From TrEMBL, chain A:
GO biological process: peptide transport
Organism: freshwater metagenome
Gene Ontology CC annotation, any one: periplasmic space
Transmembrane segments: none
Protein name (database record): Unannotated protein
From TrEMBL, chain B:
Ranges that cross the membrane: 36-58, 168-192, 227-247, 286-311, 334-354
Membrane topology: Multi-pass membrane protein
Name of the protein in question: Oligopeptide transport system permease protein OppC
GO CC annotation: plasma membrane
Entry-linked InterPro entries: BP-dependent_transpt_permease, MetI-like, MetI-like_sf, OppC_N
Subcellular location: Cell inner membrane
SUPFAM superfamilies on file: MetI-like (SSF161098)
CDD domains (UniProt xref): TM_PBP2 (cd06261)
Signal peptide start-end: none
Domain ABC transmembrane type-1 span(s) in chain numbering: 164-354
GO biological process: peptide transport; protein transport; transmembrane transport
Protein keywords: Cell inner membrane, Cell membrane, Membrane, Peptide transport, Protein transport, Transmembrane, Transmembrane helix, Transport
Automatic annotation (TrEMBL), chain C:
Protein name (database record): Unannotated protein
Phylogenetic placement of the source organism: unclassified sequences, metagenomes, ecological metagenomes
One Pfam family this sequence matches: BPD_transp_1
Subcellular localization: Cell membrane
Membrane-crossing segments per the record: 99-120, 132-153, 165-186, 198-220, 251-269, 309-336, 356-378
Organism encoding this protein: freshwater metagenome
Membrane topology category: Multi-pass membrane protein
Keyword Cell membrane: yes
The keyword Transport appears for this protein: yes
Gene Ontology cellular component list: plasma membrane
Matching SUPFAM superfamilies: MetI-like
Alphabetical UniProt keywords: Cell membrane, Membrane, Transmembrane, Transmembrane helix, Transport
């Protein structure tokens, strides 16, 4: 018996020695760590980076954009006020030289090169246009275009996320040895400065797909070559094959140097970067997909920057992290209620008006959003957000809950209060279903508050939760009101699909022939002042029709452990890494 | 080792049982002498009483949110919330069905309209402003917050009691569903053998290959609203395989026993043999397994809640409370500890009871635990 | 043996086929894989693309056949992100295998050791404490325990590492632990008197405090790296370092998740070992061995333990198969991207049909294979089976 005991003790001793050895190993590494200034800054990514080509419909994800911001060149970028600013690193100038036809001339910096030494030039712009202009469709073996039988849409050769803007461009011409690019539009596009961002290196696509010149193949309608190029463009940039330094080249302050699936992406300084050098030596993205675990990782100093979806518990948790700097702002994603114009109830204007008058938007914000974002306000404009200079409060009568007015509006329309406290007209009770995604406790509370308030106005509200509302509820039309959020954008051109007659995102089938010309103008107007005026006019019409009611902006959270500087929130789809080159340890 | 060797087998050996106790009496006696199991049983019964009876008299409702944010993150306390306490009054209200007939209900006396001086909406004191803005929400109970409150001001004690109710109910339903299924399937397979046995056992193997979490995830997406009863169906439907195998084994050996032969020879039907003769002899493993599946079900429900597939808000279970409050450890520790400790105590108790039952049913054990 | 394996395989294959059909129907009805796209502006093109890749417009049996014929060639298709699932699957299996294997080894060693001692010293103080501890471990919700581990095992421990030292309270606590340990070691035999146990305890206390003093002197004025990780399995900053630092970093990250998993399985194994040992210890042949005058140690280890081990080994094999697809919560809490990640990405929010199928099929195969392994081990170890 004794010998076994001793054996056990020996095992324990060895175990302790191992721990000690591991500790001292770690200590060695500390002495070799880089100096504090600059240094390595680690960001907790909620989703995993998975492709270098963020322009494909599969690859179009925020997680990729975050990594690619400081890697791929863009003509313009969104700053922290959501304004598009020309990248003086990439361009000498970008000028709108003509408005009819719309012509934009870009002059690329002479020393702009990809990290493999090839110049950033016109070819990259041409590839962006060819891949996303939507003219090339996939062809079956018999040469006919492949189409989706449900929608009749033909499937594109380049699996692009969006053709918006690029489809308006007639040609992209090169001059000055590729350093001058002239884009000519056949139909004006208002948000021209949002195009040619996150450029993909054309020389890599050509080299890897074995196509000598994609622009030439496009001009010659060489479908075989284009199919080869598209094949690589669609699938060649995914990270599941690992990081190929000859594929994921950089023309930004940082380059991708390592990728460990399921763990991390490491960006290090790009030695070929011609602009102002980045402050940090490297930016690390560590994958922590359960947001509730991020504050603990911050507290354990495993990450320095986190941007999880905020909730009161998470904020409270961050309060407990000593030294943490926490900031919450309203972003571009906004909650709203859409009416179904195919429903016999909500197609009546007085019903929509009465609902807008009893919808307790301020109460929803006070009770559900203020605890997370103390500076949150009700959004009273469909086209601009409160932090933008163009924002105008167009809500008018609907800015505040007015139960009396809601009732009088209904009564003027012939509705009579029933014995159950609910209005009715011609045997139809004023009972409306609000469709929403489930499970979602916040939306459940929103509907609860709405139901309580509208009951006072004699309107019955029924919660209609469903796990897939876009598939199961909205297409069937079996609802009165839809509660969901749009991932908004500062680009006015993106609004058309939501409000225009027959628009692809106009689920409620709202239509107003007076509104449609303004929406068209939003996509074509080149004068910013006129654009804002058109958006304002459009907003007033949407309010007058009470077609959809915006409620609040989703709060976004930015927290650091207090050891880094330069981390500034950006409300747009660019995300927190928009200025990663300015991040630094204190 | 000597103390466990002097056992005498007592099964069916009535002629040796000098004190002439029935098997059931023996089992009960052994269980009653199992001190830890008895303590656990008492604790569990007390907790169940607290959960089911206590929740009825407690001053707060588990779901009600005092919608004025004043109660947000109150620490546990034994004293009444100062200055915000109103009596309960009995009032007559019209019934829903017939406005002419009234009924009486107990409710909190309505709040005085001007409780806080100068609450006009711009005093700079957000609490006062809030009450001024939302007068219809301004009602609070008198009871102290024994376990504190959560972010939206729900009383954690009320929630914990409600959660205990739900968790116990779910767990007992799981035990009933899984034991019934397991016993029926195991008994049929073990008694009839042959092709039925093969089919049933392959089915058992088949269900073992599908992770219950995946099925729960799919069904959890499909059902919405107050559908907590789906949880015990899923957990029970995927939890009977163990007991089925045990019962099958028991039956395979029991059916060769003389008393079964005798029953068959005297012309008893299969149904009668199974339910009158064989099942009573397999009652030990059945009861022990049912007890232990209660403990397993409480934890499985916790796992479902963690993945967002459990009981849905505003209803709560211990699992949903624990998973909701897992982040509160450093900032609002009461939210973390109370529901967690309730789960631990319940599962511990159930396991000790199961352990005690196992010992009690074990014929080889006649030395009881100290 | 070969016959047994072949017979079991012949049963397993049709069962897996039925299973695959069942889960395919389940996944197909789980939800609309286009839901996220439909809620996005200007997404008709993407919807058309995905409908084509997932064959959503084809009837379900045709879709199953398309999926099945590809799967037979080892092609699991592509997921909603346009990535091939195969490599993700192998990687996820590797990651999960790492933590599951380590935790199983840990749990089995601890569980069997404690279980055997508990059984041999049934109803002793050790037995009671071991029973209580394993029931306590078993009763804790996984993620609840993980929070405690993260706070005390990682954050507090790392803070301590940055400024290490043993305070007075530390001396006392560790000393008491040492005292308890030695008095238990020496007092293990029932014959040992109370006085000797006390002396052993005091000696243990003194010895531990002495060691602590030395360690404290050694630790003074040093500062260590924050070794224990709470997320992922590596720290990318170690990527360019040598083998030993990387191994140390890796272990520092695996420590908490492995402990979490091990603690849960440990509870089961120790209880099971105890029960199994108790049963064999009261078996007739053990009594015979004792009667023949075989020494107690030989009775326990040669006769009882070997037989008791048989059911334990099979239970471990079965558990290993089950835990493989079911370490979802532990993986989520510690941000480890194993099989649990596939589960979450495929089934939890929006449905990713191919990924869900890959996860479910691999889990099912795994369960079947480990069932088979359990059967084989059982047949190998238990001589009674071999005669069949």
């Amino acid at each position: 018996m004794r010998t076994t005991k001793r054996g056990k003790l020996a095992v324990i001793a060895v175990g302790l020695a191992l721990v000690a050895a591991a500790c001292s190993d770690s200590k060695d590494t500390k002495t070799t760590a880089p100096p504090a200034k600059g240094g390595t800054i680690t960001y907790a990514a909620e989703q995993e980076f998975y492709t270098y080509n963020n322009g494909t419909s599969d690859g179009n994800a925020f997680a990729n954009a975050l990594v690619l911001n400081p890697v791929q060149p863009s003509t313009f970028y969104f700053d922290d006020k959501a304004a598009l600013v020309m990248s003086t690193d990439l361009l000498d100038s970008a000028e709108l030289t003509s408005t009819s036809p719309e012509t934009v001339v870009y002059k690329i910096k002479a020393d702009a090169v990809w990290s493999d030494g090839v110049a950033v030039d016109c070819k990259d712009f041409q590839l962006a246009w060819i891949s996303s202009n939507g003219t090339l469709t996939q062809q079956g073996s018999d040469g006919t275009p492949v189409t989706d039988p449900d929608s009749g849409t033909s499937v594109l050769l380049f699996n692009t996320a969006s053709t918006t803007g690029y489809e308006n461009i007639k040609s992209v011409e090169c001059a000055d040895g590729g350093k001058t690019v002239t884009a000519t539009y056949d139909k004006n596009f208002s948000d021209w400065n949002a195009l040619f961002s996150g450029l993909i290196p054309a020389h890599v696509v050509e080299a890897k797909s074995g196509v000598a010149d994609i622009a030439k193949a496009y001009a010659d309608k060489n479908m075989a070559d284009l199919a080869k190029a598209a094949e690589f463009w669609n699938t060649g940039f995914t990270a599941d094959k690992g990081i190929d330094p000859t594929v994921m080249v950089s023309a930004g302050p940082f380059m991708i140097t390592s990728f460990t699936p399921g763990e991390s992406v490491v960006l290090e300084k790009n030695p070929k970067w011609w602009g102002t050098p980045a402050l940090a030596d490297s930016i690390v993205f560590r994958l922590i997909d359960d947001a509730t675990q991020q504050p603990i990782a911050l507290q354990n100093k495993e990450v320095q920057v986190i941007t999880p979806q905020p909730n009161p518990d998470l904020l409270a948790q961050l309060e407990g992290v000593s030294g943490a700097e926490v900031k919450v702002d309203g972003g571009y994603t906004y909650e709203h209620m859409d009416f179904n114009f195919a429903s016999p109830l909500t197609k009546q204007l007085p019903v929509r008006q009465a609902f807008a008058l009893c919808l307790p938007r301020q109460e929803i914000v006070d009770k559900l959003i203020i605890p997370v974002n103390p500076s949150a306000v009700v959004v009273n404009n469909h086209f601009y957000f409160p932090f933008q200079s163009e924002y105008v409060d167009n809500a008018g009568d609907y800015a505040k809950v007015d139960i009396a007015k809601a009732k009088s509006t209904l009564e003027a329309d012939g509705w009579a209060l029933g014995s159950d406290g609910i209005y009715a007209k011609g045997g139809t009770r004023l009972s409306m279903k609000i469709a929403r995604k489930d499970p979602n406790p916040r939306r459940a509370s929103e509907v609860q508050l709405t139901a309580a308030s509208c009951k006072e106005a004699g309107i019955e509200i029924i919660d209609q939760p469903n796990e897939d509302i876009f598939s199961n509820i909205l297409p069937t039309g079996q609802y009165e009101i839809a509660l969901f959020a749009w991932v908004g954008s500062p680009l006015q051109s993106s609004q058309k699909a939501i409000f225009t007659t027959g628009g692809s995102s106009n689920f409620g089938q709202y239509t107003n022939t007076k509104l449609d010309p303004y929406l068209d103008q939003l996509t074509t107007e080149l004068d910013p002042a006129k654009l804002a005026a058109a958006a304002d006019a459009a907003d007033k019409l949407v309010w007058a029709d009470v077609a959809t009611i915006p409620i609040f902006q989703f709060p976004d959270l930015t927290a650091t452990d207090g050891t880094v500087t330069g981390v500034i929130y950006n409300p747009t789809q660019a995300g927190i890494t928009w200025n990663a080159q300015l991040w630094s340890l204190k | 080792m000597s103390e466990t060797t002097d056992t005498t087998p007592t099964t069916q050996d009535h002629e040796f049982d000098v004190k002439a106790r029935t098997q059931a009496q023996l089992v009960v006696r052994r269980f009653l002498h199992h001190r830890l199991a008895m303590i656990s049983l008492v604790v569990l019964v007390l907790m169940a009483l607290l959960a089911f009876a206590g929740a009825r008299v407690w001053g707060y409702d588990h779901a009600r949110i005092p919608q004025n944010n004043l109660e947000s993150y109150n620490a546990p306390s034994l004293t009444k919330p100062a200055g915000r306490c109103r009596p309960i009054e009995t009032v007559a209200v019209p019934t829903n069905t017939d406005p002419g007939v009234t009924t009486t209900v107990d409710r909190l006396a309505p709040a005085p309209t001007t409780t806080i001086a100068g609450a006009t909406g711009d005093t700079g004191d957000w609490r006062a402003d809030f009450i001024a803005k939302y007068p219809r929400d301004h009602d609070l109970s008198c009871a102290p917050h024994l376990f504190g409150t959560n972010q939206v001001g729900q009383d954690l004690f009320a929630q914990t009691l409600r959660g205990t109710q739900r968790s116990l109910l779910i767990a007992i339903m799981v035990a009933i569903v899984s034991t019934t299924l397991g016993v029926l399937i195991g008994a049929a397979a073990g008694f009839f053998r042959g092709w039925l046995d093969a089919v049933l056992m392959r089915m058992t193997d088949l269900i073992l290959t599908v992770p219950y979490l995946a099925v729960a995830a799919v069904l959890g997406r499909k059902v919405s609203g107050d559908t907590w009863w789906v949880i015990p169906l899923i957990l029970g439907g995927f939890g009977w395989m163990g007991i089925a195998r045990i019962i099958r084994g028991e039956f395979l050996s029991l059916r060769e026993k003389e008393f079964v032969e005798a029953a068959r020879a005297s012309g008893a039907t299969s149904k009668r043999i199974i339910f009158k003769h064989m099942l009573p002899n397999a009652v030990g493993p059945i009861i022990v397994n049912a007890t232990l599946s209660v403990a397993g079900a409480i934890l499985a429900e916790t796992a479902l809640s963690f993945l967002g597939l459990g009981v849905k808000s505003p209803d709560v279970s211990l699992g949903s409370l624990v998973s909701e409050n897992q982040t509160a450890f450093s900032t609002h520790p009461w939210l973390f500890w109370f529901p967690g400790l309730f789960i631990i105590v319940i599962v511990l108790c159930v396991n000790f009871i199961g352990d005690g039952l196992r010992d009690a049913f074990d014929p080889k054990q006649n030395r009881v635990r100290a | 043996m070969l016959r047994l394996i072949i017979r079991r395989m012949l049963v397993a294959i049709p069962m897996l086929l039925v299973c695959s059909v069942l889960v395919f129907v389940l996944v197909a009805n789980a939800g609309d894989p286009l839901e996220a796209l439909r809620g996005r502006p200007n997404s008709q093109q993407a919807i058309a693309q995905r409908t084509a890749t997932l064959h959503l417009n084809k009837p379900i049996f045709e879709r199953y056949w398309l999926w099945f014929s590809k799967m037979l060639h080892g092609d699991f298709g592509i997921d909603n992100k346009g990535l091939r699932i195969g490599p993700q699957l192998w990687r996820a299996m590797g990651t999960t295998l790492q933590i599951v294997l380590l935790s199983t080894i840990l749990a089995v060693c601890l569980g069997i050791a404690v279980g055997v001692i508990s059984a041999v010293r049934q109803y002793s103080f050790f037995d009671y404490s071991a029973t209580f501890v394993s029931f306590l471990f078993y009763a804790m919700p996984v993620f609840w325990f993980a929070v405690l581990l993260k706070v005390f095992g990682a954050i507090e421990f790392n803070n301590w590492l940055e400024n290490p030292g043993i305070g007075t309270v530390g001396f006392l606590l560790i000393g008491l632990l040492g005292a308890g340990f030695t008095s238990m070691l020496f007092g293990f035999k029932r014959t040992v008197s109370k006085r000797r146990r006390l002396i052993a305890g005091i000696a243990g206390f003194a010895g531990t405090v002495l060691v602590c003093l030395l360690v404290d002197r050694f630790l003074a004025d040093r500062t260590y790296f924050r070794w224990i990780g709470t997320v992922n399995t590596t720290d990318p900053r170690f990527a360019h370092q040598g083998f030993w630092p990387r191994l140390g970093d890796h272990l520092g990250h695996l420590l908490l998740p492995v402990t979490t998993l091990a603690v849960i399985s440990y509870a089961g194994y120790s209880r099971f070992t105890r029960a199994s040992m108790l049963e064999t210890l009261s078996a007739d042949y053990v009594r015979t061995a004792r009667a023949k005058g075989v020494s107690e140690r030989a009775v326990i280890f040669k006769h009882a333990f070997r037989t008791a081990l048989i059911p334990i080994v099979t239970v471990v094999a079965l558990d290993f198969g089950a835990i493989f697809g079911g370490a979802i919560i532990t993986e989520t809490v510690f941000s480890i991207q194993g099989m649990g990640k596939l589960f979450r990405e495929a089934l939890q929010k929006d449905i990713d049909p191919n990924k869900a199928m890959a996860y479910l099929i691999v889990t099912a195969i795994n369960v079947v294979v480990f069932n088979l392994i359990a059967d084989i081990i059982y047949a190998k170890l238990d001589p009674r089976i071999r005669h069949e």
